[in-house]
Amino acid sequence: MADRPLRPPRAELAPGLGVPRALIGLWQVADMERDGKPLDPDVAALALGEYADAGFDAFDMADHYGSAEILVGRYLAKAGPGRATVFTKWCPIPGAMTPEVVRDGVQQRLERLGLSRIDLLQFHWWQYRHPAYLDAMLELDRLRRMGRIGHLGVTNFDTDHLRLLVKHGIRVVTNQVSFSLLDRRPAGRMTEVCRDTGVKLLAYGVLAGGFLSDRWVGRPEPTDIPDWSKSKYKRFIDTVGGWSVLQKVLAAAKVIAVRHGVSIANVAARWVLEQEAVGAVIIGARLGEREHRGDNLVLFGFALDDADRARLAEAQSLMRDIPGDCSDEYRKPPFLTASGDLSHHLAGLPRVFETRAGFTRPERRTVDSGGWEPIAGYARAVRAGTRILVSGTTATLGGGTVVCPGDAEGQTVYILDKIGAAIEALGGELEDVVRTRIYVRDAARAEAVARVHGRYFSAIRPANTLVEIAGLVGDYEVEVEAEADVCR
To answer: What is the pTM of this model?
Structure first.
């Protein structure tokens, strides 16, 4: 039988940011309030205090988790500052991220929480083609240095863009992503980048909305999903192979759970907790309805051995992988989210570039990036009939700042996002690209650049040329141009 420790062990996610290895997630506050009636703040504050008293004194929330920030603020007003570690998220709609916009977003979080400093502010961005996420993160980093934010994290960033932020010099300490027996995406390149950069993962979805628990062993597939969380993770189950595959995973976990005298939920969370890059797991709480403090403590009274891991791996071998990189479900099909298909939401986001008629050929459409195109007499991209031609593109942020100085891989990510935005403005998509040309300063970096190109174009396969150009203009490691044919 597993021993139950008196309090959860703690981990230092970054200097000065020590937390229990199981955080209390408050995303279900939004689900509990979806009838429009906020939770009773005094009842919620009491429940939060009970978690904190048991050692689970770090709460994770967001600007869109209903009244979660207000509830935590009420608890801290009664318990006193410093009684708990506060993680929240800012998830703005893409657009101009001026210093004023960013400061207002942070100030709203501070006011709802009743704090002068947020321990960990986590940033989410919907559309990487819109480069203002870098402006936002740079301003957030300034606020960190001013003391309004203790540490910076991101939430639902994929591997390439997490790496880009760090290589650009922004001190990101955590990335919050889905990680479970069903969703193993973070165990790949994400873990490699975390190993290289020191970023820790905060893992959510570790119990798949409760489906990875004893209550679902041998149960028939549900037809009526009671809450948003289960709606989301039922989509994950369908994607990895369906209900029968879930039952195989549950059966394997049940054998391990019986052996250790624990629950299936303990086994599922423990498997995630033992993954290399994971700093902490996030366990959801339904404040005032039910609590799992005792069961959460059992998580730290046992460890998986090689036989346990082999048994789980055998069951997992029957699963299909969740497609793509971490958090792709928020940006591209299949949209494995609580609300399902997000294509309408994404289509409504602001575009990066505005189009206009060609100067001498009105039937043509062009876009500019606000750089030196008028001086040099060219356009960022031109559409002539069904063809879209994108000029040589570099990793340049507003004001001429070079993105990821000295890092060809990060620059390529930024460039391909920028190319995608230009093509999108002119009515195309990356799927329409028929040719790319890549110019690198140093041939030794060509493979890293080519691998980024492969992650964007592996299913498209345009014609491609990659050459070394020692005299590349400016402090850039790579430049890319593209041609697309919108034939639909």
So the answer is: 0.95
